[in-house]
Amino acid sequence: MTEPRSPLAGALALAAEIRAGRRSAVSVVTGAIADIEVRDTRFNSVTRILGAAAVAQAEEVDRAIAAGRDPGPLAGVPFGVKDLFDVQGEVTTAGSLVLRDNPPAARDATVVARLRAAGAVPLATLNMDEFAYGFSTENTHNGTTRNPHDPERLAGGSSGGSAASVAAGMLPFTLGSDTNGSIRVPSSLCGVWGLKPTYGQMPLQGVYPFVASLDVVGPMASTVEDLQAVYGIMADAPLVSLPVVEDVRVARLGGWFASNISTELTAALDAVMTHLGHDRVIELPEVARARASAFLISAAEGGNLHLPRLRRRAMQYDPATRGRLMAGAMLPAATFVQAHRFRRWFRAQVHAALAQADVLVAPTTVGIAPRIDQPSIIVDGKTVSARANLGIFTQPISLTGLPVLAAPLAVEGMPLGIQLIGAPGSEARLFAVARELESAGLARCTPLAAGFAAKDSPC
After folding, report:
1. In 223-358, where do the E strands start and end?
2. Which of 43, 57, 131, 450 is the most exposed place for a label (fewest CB within 10 A)?
3. How much is the pTM?
4. Could you tell me the pLDDT band of residue 8, with boundaries at 50, 70 and 90?
5. Which Gene3D superfamilies does this chain map to (predicted)?
6. Residues annotated catalytic, as ranges
């Protein structure tokens, strides 16, 4: 068996090495494949390795460099995609048996094509909750993705494979989707950076849908610099400059967002706000109803999307997914309409809060990743399902369509994370605050602990 190698460098650092000829794209790609084959047996983050196609593209990058042509800013950098992004020549399964007999994708999803054009190499498809309906990446068909910080714990979801493969140092960046928190929750639990961009900003062509009125796609990475660079390529709008962080008004969300969180997370949040020099606390109204509305909209739209197939092939679905989709398909139209009416009202309340502060800070999850054999969390003194409830702080924000940057906190032990929330199109402000927190040592990709392949940590 091949010995595990040291982790891949960050995406931009790796591209610089390849562009300078100090490493070949082929050696990087083949090394990453060998590493995944050895180490992912512990984490189950990868569903398919795109070996031949990845090596062929890496060879093209090396030929371009040898010929003096520009191979792109992410030259030869391997990355993975949640298995609901189309990759040319591959079947997009969305984590389900139901789609496995579909024809291969004729072309890449738009964001994958943009990254490929920048020189990045799609290397793997990644595990997820079936059809992105869950917060834990417990997949009946592909198995559960394990947290690299402790393989006895969940990685979060539904983009769990995307977060875990970055946290383990097997891929420098990955793509995920976020409907109710599916980038932010696993980013927090695995200790990596993640971004849910403004709703509607990223093209969704070639991405299997879940809830059209909420779905967003975005990157996950081990450094905020890489996250920003990949985001700019995906959006086809690089952020060339960031605002001065001292000019960004920051406030903390209280009320709902201050309840149920661990003492360690409370202390880390306090340190963040103290460093930023802001002590303002804003309490949003009716957050519980906002979360309920996000639940109802997700159930209704997801159920409607899958209803024709459920009528024919219901037993091929994960039982938990099947039950939730069928319940959503039976929701009365009036309930769905009322949820959207409330959504408009709640969005106005959040915009009013953003008139008082440019960036709102909130926890991402209540605490550390739950154990796989005890997949639950405590909310208001009650034990509830992790798969359904890890997003209690992310779902209400999803309802607004706002951009959110998930920042991993610099804590000892298992990872914890926060959300940096901004007005539509204000990603530059979020990156300015994130870079300040990283520079101050308050936020960083969480190193793997001793005993859990610490030598392979990307941090």
Report:
1. 250-253, 281-282
2. 450
3. 0.96
4. confident
5. Amidase signature (AS) domain
6. 82, 158, 182
